[in-house]
Amino acid sequence: MATCSAPGKVFLFGEHAVVFGKPGIAMGIKPRVFVTVRRGKNPPRVNSPYIENCFEQTGVNGSAYIHSQLPSSSGLGSSAAVTVATLSAINEEYNLGMDRSHIASTAFKIEKKVQRGRASPTDTFVSTYGGLVLVKDNKRRILPPENLSLVIGNTMVSHKTAELVGMVGEFRRSNPHVVDPILDAIEAVTIRSLHNFHNQKTLGRYMDVNHALLEALGVGHPMLTRLVTAARTSGAYGAKMTGAGGGGCMIALCPKRSKSRIAKAIEAAEGRAIITSIDTDGVRTEDDS
Ligand code: MEV
């Protein structure tokens, strides 16, 4: 038996724009998914296509048990975390010798297959390596970690990433002169934020701007507006939706001492709050004893 766990992710800046080759910044976050794999002769009897595909791709049989701290379908990369943790646990249990890069690329392949062509290579990368990750020229690179205090607000409104990405693509095809400057502005905010990680007030201001630009792309939602407003008015440096939008989650950058006040304000606005910070471990093996 082997247990591995993998973190979730948030986009700090640049979601949607990355789909068009612009830069983005994502971060591994503390809530994790834990997967225990046991050997077995029979094919796995699980009702997760991600887990089924992990066994199929690696050519072994066994069963898997998931324990998740991450809400699903909320933009926090829970399916990537399940896939990465399962592959890693299979790797441990069967001594397959896969390194992290092999796990990340296989997990992306599985996500693409299960999600019928549209998957985020950022989700599987961040879940495998953790840390702060810069997406640039469609490649991903780990940046020095930053100690940001974040509160996540889950709207509990489920969303479909593929539909939202398709919608933005369609908006751009039909209105390039309107959409391209918005994507350029998101790029500018992302690049400037890289120089302002130590100036959290400015970083928060950039988050507010990025949120407004995402709304301009059409991926806002009234519940996101409500939670973002609640976070800002209760003392956050800044707040924005994270991930595909249209529901899902928002993040607030908070002064350390105000995290619980901001979390309470998000809950009072009918969101589910998670107080979090950076995860720098990525996928890891847990002690089963
Ligand atoms: C979804 O978490 C982020 C998007 O930018 C899609 C992607 O990066 O693949 C909307």
UniProtKB/TrEMBL annotation:
Keywords: ATP-binding, Cytoplasm, Isoprene biosynthesis, Kinase, Lipid biosynthesis, Lipid metabolism, Magnesium, Nucleotide-binding, Transferase. The active site is at residue 123. It is an enzyme of class 2 (transferase). It is found in: Cytoplasm. Residues 56-131 form the GHMP kinase N-terminal domain. PROSITE patterns: GHMP_KINASES_ATP (PS00627). Pathway: Isoprenoid biosynthesis; isopentenyl diphosphate biosynthesis via mevalonate pathway; isopentenyl diphosphate from (R)-mevalonate: step 1/3. GO terms for molecular function: ATP binding; magnesium ion binding; mevalonate kinase activity. The keyword Transferase applies. One of its GO terms (biological process) is isopentenyl diphosphate biosynthetic process, mevalonate pathway. SUPFAM superfamilies: GHMP Kinase, C-terminal domain (SSF55060), Ribosomal protein S5 domain 2-like (SSF54211). It holds the Pfam family GHMP_kinases_C. Its EC number is 2.7.1.36. Belongs to the GHMP kinase family. Mevalonate kinase subfamily. Homodimer. This is Mevalonate kinase.
